[in-house]
Amino acid sequence: QVQLVESGGGLVQAGGSLRLSCAASGRTLSSYAMGWFRQAPGKEREYVAAMGWSDSNTYYLDSVKDRFTISRDNVKNTEYLQMNNLKPEDTAVYYCAARRTFSDSVIPRAYEYDYWGQGTQVTVSS
To answer: Fewest CB within 10 angstroms: 6, 50, 62, 84, which?
Structure first.
């Protein structure tokens, strides 16, 4: 079992930055695909960013490319989402997710993940 706990959300003005963290316990994340998803009120959960076993294998939602960066620290067993130049439309609850994989795969689909955090609220004011 893997337990994921997100932190780092908050209220920020448009153009500001936040860094979300997702700390894992129960297993080391080195062989897990990781992802970040978000859900705004009244909308379906959508993927934001995903990565395989290393920072060199990443995938982003088009609207966050060049603004968000997903990364991981296998020593700290933590995944990160650096969010720059935030926009009001980025407002949502953000969730991290993990799935054990047997190859360096990127998984941008929510239904394929086995473990989820509880979510952290990000609010961007205009």
So the answer is: 62
Each residue's pLDDT, cut to its tens digit, for the chain (126 residues) gives: 899 999 999 999 999 999 999 999 888 888 999 999 999 999 999 999 999 998 889 999 999 999 999 999 989 999 999 999 999 999 999 999 999 999 898 998 999 999 999 999 999 999
The token pair that represents 29 in the structure block = 């994340």
Pairing of strands 46-51, 58-60: antiparallel
CA distance 40 to 16: 19
Q: How far is CA 81 from CA 1, 39, 102, 126, in A?
A: 23, 15, 23, 21
Strands (E), 1-126: 3-7, 10-13, 18-25, 32-39, 46-51, 58-60, 68-73, 78-83, 92-100, 115-116, 120-125
